Structures are given as C-alpha cells and as structure tokens.
TrEMBL record:
Residues 1-20 are annotated as: Disordered. The chain crosses the membrane at residues 26-48. It comes from Roseibium polysiphoniae. It is found in: Cell inner membrane; Cell membrane. Keywords: Cell inner membrane, Cell membrane, Cell projection, Chemotaxis, Cilium, Flagellar rotation, Flagellum, Membrane, Transmembrane, Transmembrane helix. This is Flagellar protein FliL. One of its GO terms (biological process) is bacterial-type flagellum-dependent swarming motility. It holds the Pfam family FliL. Controls the rotational direction of flagella during chemotaxis.
Length: 169
C-alpha cells in the first residue's frame, strides 16, 4: 500500500508541475504584451505630441521665422469664347487673376498682354465642355494656363492663375 501511496503522490506532483507551467506562461505572455503596449503608446505620444517643442537653435540664436511675402494680383480682361462642340453652341466666360511676386513683375508682364490673351484664346477654344467638368478638369485647366502664360512672358514668372469666375453656358 505504500507503493500505491507513492504512485499517487507522483501523479499529483506531475499535475501541479504542468499546471504551474501553464500559469507561468500566461503571466509571461501577459507581461510581454503589457510592455509592448506601453512602448507603442509612449512611441505614439512622442511621435504625435513631440513636434510642439521649439526648434533647436545654434549658438543661442532665435529660431528663424519665415514671413509670408506679400503678393500682387493682376486682373486679366474678361474672356468669352465658344467651346469645341459637335452640335449646340456652348460658351465659356472666364475672369482670371494672375498671382505675381511683386509690382515690378506686373510692369514686366503688361507689355505681353496681347500675347497672353492670344495664347489663352487659342487654348480655350479647343476645349470641350467635358474637359471642364469637376475639380480635376479645372485643376488641369489652371495648370495648362499657368504653363502657357509662363512661356509667353519668359523671363518674367507668374506664380499662379486664379479663377475669379467661370461660366459654361
């Protein structure tokens, strides 16, 4: 009977060893998961909120603050052109302002006004109403007009083309 008691005691210790190992693994994985979660949270905090600190300076100088330069807008005369269509006549009425660097640039561009209007008229007459649909169509139109005007007034440079009014009728 002593042998039976010894065999029963061995079975109990084996079961406790297996159960204790399972609990140890659970605690170990839980601890690792908590450390990873805390590390990810800290990294996200420093990444997202860390940009609020002032920029480091060299030799005690103040950080450089970029000032927005004033721009000048030059209004072009209103243009009305008929668009390329198969049947019904469709007109495009457009008012455009040019964004330039300073007043001196307006003086450089003014003599080229006939060339600018000619380039715009030729391009606008080739457009179809479908070319002007949606914001993507207007963005392409703006980029193409900017490219054409900069070719017309070179070496002067226009910074942007702004639509004041666009009407397709």
């Amino acid at each position: 009977m002593a042998d039976e008691d010894a065999g029963a005691a061995d079975d109990e210790t084996d079961g406790e060893a297996e159960g204790g190992g399972g609990k140890k693994k659970l605690i170990l994985f839980g601890g690792i998961g908590a450390v990873v979660l805390i590390g990810a949270g800290a990294g996200a905090y420093f990444f997202l909120a860390g940009g609020d600190a002032p920029a480091p300076t060299v030799d005690g100088e103040q950080p450089v603050v970029e000032e927005q330069k004033p721009v000048v807008f030059y209004d072009l005369p209103e243009m009305t052109v008929n668009l390329a269509t198969d049947g019904r006549t469709t007109y495009l009425k457009v008012r455009i302002a040019l964004e330039v660097q300073d007043r001196g640039m307006v003086d450089q561009i003014s003599p080229y006004l006939p060339r600018i209007l000619d380039a715009f008229q030729i391009y606008l007459r080739e457009l179809r109403p479908a070319d002007l649909e949606g914001s993507a169509g207007l963005f392409r139109l703006k980029e193409e007009l900017l490219r054409r005007i900069n070719l017309s007034v070179y070496p002067a440079r226009v910074e942007g083309v702004l639509f004041k009014e666009i009407l397709v009728q």
